[in-house]
Amino acid sequence: MLRVIATWTALCLAILAPGLPSGAADPYEIYAILPLTGQAANIGKVSLEGLEGAERAVNASGGIDGRPVKFIALDDQSNTQTDVQLANTVIAKNVPVILGSAIVAGCKAIVPLVANGPVLYCLSPALRPDPGSYAFSVNVAASDTIAVGIRYARLRGWKQIATITGTDATGQDADKSIADALALPENKDLSLVEAEHFNLTDLSAAAQIAKIRAAHPQLLIAWSSGTATGTVFRALKDSAYEVPVLTSSANGTYSQMAQFGQILPDELYFSGIPAQAPDQVTDPATKKALAAYFTAFAAMGIKPDLQVSAYDPALLVVSALRKLGVSATATQLRDYIINLKGYVGANGPYDFKASPQRGLTEDSANIVRWNLAKGTWYGVSKPGGAPLPGK
Fold it and tell me: Which of 48, 150, 155, 208 is 20 to 30 A removed from 182 (C-alpha atoms)?
């Protein structure tokens, strides 16, 4: 089971304590920095489950060089200052890799600290690492998923778009990505009729929704996560305003759908991942990886959703260490991943030459819709965003 270190004092004791004596049975420890408490705790919980699933799968298949793997999760409390403190302490341990954070602001705070290593595998898709750097980012880029969502809107005939985003780093990245997508020649007939913003701690977004309603959009892009997204959904429900809503895949968890319950929009779309619409996957290798993914979490009694955001990079890093050995340096690990092509995870085939620092492109993203009656997602687009017939 994962070991979670929730306090700064406990972390220091764990890091500074003498290591286990060397031996075949000694665990190989990989540190992850996650928002297990605070505003982004919902994302941190899912990431933690993803690491536990990966740990079980790795150790069931022999670990690394016969040593069991142990992922050690450190709580950044959804706070970037804590991210810096935790990262500095872990870096002092001379580790080759750190996983996390699961929020982009936390990753951005750590990136300057790893300019010369270790490898940082950010578990938020909104990070845009520099090619060739020690930083990597999970899943399809948030900018690409937004582009896929806007392509879906265009091909559905929705030309008038409104947005509501947070004032945080995620919201700022979304604003840029939306502007970039709308500037593409293929989207010249689309227009942004209203762009609203709100603070993640705001208790209401009623004023912003009123302005959006007056603009008569055909699609509302609500790009935030966690409780902040609930604030937007509640404002929509309170105003009895119905409009198709596209939101981030970060909101695509069963627990969050249950939490929002009666305030969910009737027509709610997500920039999704293969695991949310496995029936649309045709690639045999991806289907096999997805089957292993679902099997791993069924054994844990979990119906998975976004656990793949931690599960896939954890397994990818382990596969690299199995090739390089437990003495691999940060530079060796970085170079291995940079040149990796042909690895297949639950998110599909990875090609870090075609997509530097990420391995996935728009072709790994699709659009899914939440089915209120059945309580699950179903695919409404092909990979890349082209609508499925009748959807």
Answer: 208
